[in-house]
Structure prediction request, 313 residues.
Amino acid sequence: MVFFGTPAFAVPSLDALINSPHEVVAVVSQPDRPKGRGQHLQPTPTKQLAITHGIPVLQPAKIRDSAFWQQIRDLHADLGVVVAFGRILPEELIAIPRLGMINVHASVLPRYRGAAPIQRAVINGDEETGVTIMRVERELDAGPMFAVATAPISSDATSGEMAAILAPLGAQLLLDVVDDLAGGRAVETPQDHARATFASKITKEEGAIDWSLTARVIHNQVRGLQPWPLASTRLHGARLVIRRTALAGASPAPPDPAPAGTVVTGAGDKIIVACGEETFLEVLELQPEGKRTMTAREFLIGRGVTEGARFTS
Prediction:
């Protein structure tokens, strides 16, 4: 088989296939990108694993490249496996492997088709998510399903933490489906397209916190936008990343409602902020721009904020 995948989320699936009886003849990854302060090119996570095992790696600059398509044909792979590759595959490429291509998608389809299923589930406050193994077709994430597994989302889980749970879950489910395909036992179930929802790509602009929203909505935003682009606010004009929060429960505010974004408690180890609809959010960890992440206590010791101060978008 030929494996299409790029980020860390794809590594458990690739590793599982490499250590299975099925042969991975090549790994296709997006091109290496510059990272870090020096902006040096860094190999993608799947490329690193492939090189370790002596597996050829293809990194086409353009997915619609006839020379690249010929490289895939020359592999004579029976199956294509796609896990977080990061690009939409054209029909001509999907049709090359004898058994077509299958995908590990990080949601319970048909819910959350698209680029950011984990983040959207967390941002929307869902209590459950999962992974689906489906057939790759022309329409995005709309192919018939081979298998589904679910996983709970705790009220404090971040998108990064959920990805770490779903990646190995998807890897195990993938192995079962590949075994079934090889043995001629695989069963495909069409999706109910009428129930489909879409998980649009996360943008940097979504990080700005609107304190007029309820505490629960903001809490989910903080969880959902980790590890990127992170939720942030401004204090005295300076950007402040909010890393971890909790719902504050009963109102700690004075009788007169405080404007949204106002710090109503800023002492000891507690920073509590007024939000919309007279709800309150406790800020547990935060990061001033250019500095390390701090606990609320550490931030307060440095007098980073005082009661009555106001966070703004």
About this structure: The first helix runs from residue 11 to 18.
